[in-house]
Amino acid sequence: MLATPRQLLDRFHQAMLDFSPDSLADLFADEATYEFVFWTPHRGPSQRYDGREEIRAGFRAAWGSVSAPPLTGFRGMCVHETADAEVVISEGEMDGVNHATGQPFSSRFVLVLRARDGRIVHLRDYSDVLRTAAGLGRLSQLFELVRGESAP
Question: Start and end of every SnoaL-like domain (predicted)?
Fold first, then answer.
């Protein structure tokens, strides 16, 4: 039996907690798109990953330099079923810890997930990148990247 959009969403959240680029990417169809709505310069100009293998490579690169997973859980989760049977919307907060300082942080998110034939075909990620960067102690690094991208 093929996974439903809701089941895929649950598996997506678990892959995030497991900090596993492979488990995450394996949820997606070959030609899927993972779209980041809020701009961050380290992802380059497209702000999206096209195809399962680009999703895998993108998350491997993003998570590869991290010594320990910062994500510790989700809370305040609300999942909205939609009139479109392929689409679910998830909103809530993710909790994390800055391992360098031991300080906890949280960040809000909204995910719009479209699934077909038991795989995610499109995911639109509205995560609060500023709050996450602040929690990880990387806000100044993010601002330097922004300044570099917008320089004449």
Answer: 10-122
pLDDT at site 148: 76
What total number of domains does the chain contain?
1
pLDDT per position as a tens digit, 41-86:
666 666 899 999 999 999 998 888 777 889 999 999 999 999 999 9
Contact call for residues 58 and 71 (beta carbons, < 8 A)? no
The SS3 call for residue 65 is: coil
If phi > 0 it is left, if psi is from -120 to 50 it is alpha, else beta; for residue 118 that is left
Q: Count each helix (H run) and each strand (E run) in the chain, helices first.
A: 5, 6
Of 39-53, 89-103, 121-135, 137-151, the one with minimum mean pLDDT is 137-151
Percent of the chain with pLDDT over 90: 70
State the pLDDT at residue 149: 65
User: 41: domain CATH number?
Assistant: 3.10.450.50
Residue 78 one-letter amino acid: C
What gap in Å lies between CA 90 and CA 82, rounded to an integer? 11
**DSSP annotation of 45:** S
d(CA 101, CA 9): 31
